[in-house]
Write a structure and sequence with these properties.
Blueprint (H helix, E strand, L loop, with lengths): L11 H16 L6 H29 L3 H25 L6 H29 L2 E2 L2 H24 L10 H25 L26 H35 L5 H11 L1 H12 L3 H26 L13 H18 L3 E2 L1 H19 L2
Antiparallel strand pairs: 1-2
């Protein structure tokens, strides 16, 4: 006789986020010994997988591209809170944390998640197909916001160092909010079909057709609550182990920018897993929605948040990139444009994007 299904409240995707949140409360603002750090890392990983599960359930209910937007915005809002908190605790040594984390998010999403999704989709289905109209619009918005927020501060002269003056920072924050708002409007209202998956023949596919019975409203609301708990746990536990990460970076005599890279890698794990799973189902457009939507949310929400926070934070706010990072950003924009235009990609394009990410990670460790 087949065993009856386990009650919803006893499933690991329900229990794990709650236990992770309790662990977060027990370890918040405490100096953690190595065994506890290892325990925190395990719960962090489990919470990431649980977050992906609940995000996909929500996506089943609301459809695409709303599902991708929910995960991207939820993760980014908590990421912003983490950045501001670390900046408040770090003083002058965290002056470049926002820049390092945002740029790391751009490189990881536009090269890592995008490249891995294309590689997985193309290897399994010969070519990875997507909608160039939506993907190109999102990529253009990312290139604009990254240039306005991360490149221009290096060349302005009103403030010493790679910093904006107050007027310039207000403009960058306003532009970020406006462009991100226009992107969300395009994604969800005016041109939703530009962000839906397509077949090799170019026909639009509604992802709702892929699923059987969507979850009920009660199940969806439960997943929304558990997704929030899981994401808070992920970012909070990441903050809890950040002192250990910082000590490890210092002990290894690595640049302080590596801390921003590690934070971005941890925070973007849910999107990475969800994007690869979508690519395996031949829904590469969903993968690109997750990748580029996360990059846009990271810039569009982080820059305004740190601009507001800079009014009460005592340390400086350095946003300008160095020469090697500007070269990698320009290469990412050029290669990404060539990837998007044909509306389909082979494993070669995926490998090229991953190589750019590899170069960024090597230069982060050995500038």
């Amino acid at each position: 006789m087949a065993s009856s299904p386990r009650p919803h409240y006893l499933q690991w995707t329900t229990v794990a986020p709650v236990l992770a949140f309790l662990l977060l409360l027990a370890t918040w603002h405490r100096d953690l010994p190595w065994p506890v750090v290892a325990l925190v890392a395990c719960f962090l990983a489990v919470s990431v997988v649980a977050a992906v599960h609940h995000a996909e359930l929500i996506a089943h209910r609301v459809g695409e591209p709303y599902g991708s937007l929910v995960l991207a915005v939820a993760v980014t809002i908590i990421e912003v809170a983490l950045i501001v908190t670390l900046m408040a605790d770090g003083g002058d040594k965290s002056a470049g944390l926002a820049r390092d984390t945002v740029f790391a998010a751009v490189m990881i999403t536009c090269n890592g998640i995008l490249g891995l999704s294309i590689l997985v989709g193309a290897l399994k289905y010969r070519v990875a197909v997507f909608n160039a109209e939506g993907t190109g619009a999102a990529f253009g918005a990312i290139a604009t916001l990254a240039t306005l927020s991360l490149v221009l501060p290096t060349f302005t002269t009103s403030q010493p160092g790679p910093q904006f003056s107050t007027t310039q920072l207000v403009f960058a924050a306003t532009a970020s909010i406006v462009i991100y708002g226009l992107f969300v409007s395009t994604l969800t209202v005016r041109h939703r079909d530009y962000f839906l998956p397509v077949t090799p023949a170019g026909e639009i596919v509604d992802p709702m057709d892929d699923h059987s019975e969507p979850p009920t409203l009660r199940q969806t609301m439960t997943s929304v609550a558990l997704l929030s708990v899981a994401l808070v746990s992920v970012v909070g536990l990441a903050k809890g182990v950040s002192p250990t990460i910082e000590r490890g970076v210092a002990a290894a005599d690595l640049p302080n920018a590596v801390v921003g890279v590690v934070i971005a890698l941890l925070v973007l794990l849910p999107e990475s897993i969800a994007a690869v799973r979508a690519a395996v189902r031949n829904r590469v457009q969903i993968s690109l929605n997750l990748a580029l939507g996360s990059a846009l949310a990271s810039i569009g929400l982080t820059i305004p948040a740190v601009a507001v926070a800079s009014t009460w934070l005592s340390g400086p706010l350095e946003l300008g990139l160095g020469a090697n990072h500007m070269i990698l950003l320009a290469l990412t924009v050029a290669v990404g444009t060539l990837t998007v235009i044909p509306k389909r990609a082979t494993p070669l394009q995926g490998g090229v994007h991953l190589a750019i990410l590899g170069a960024y990670l090597v230069l982060a460790v050995s500038p």
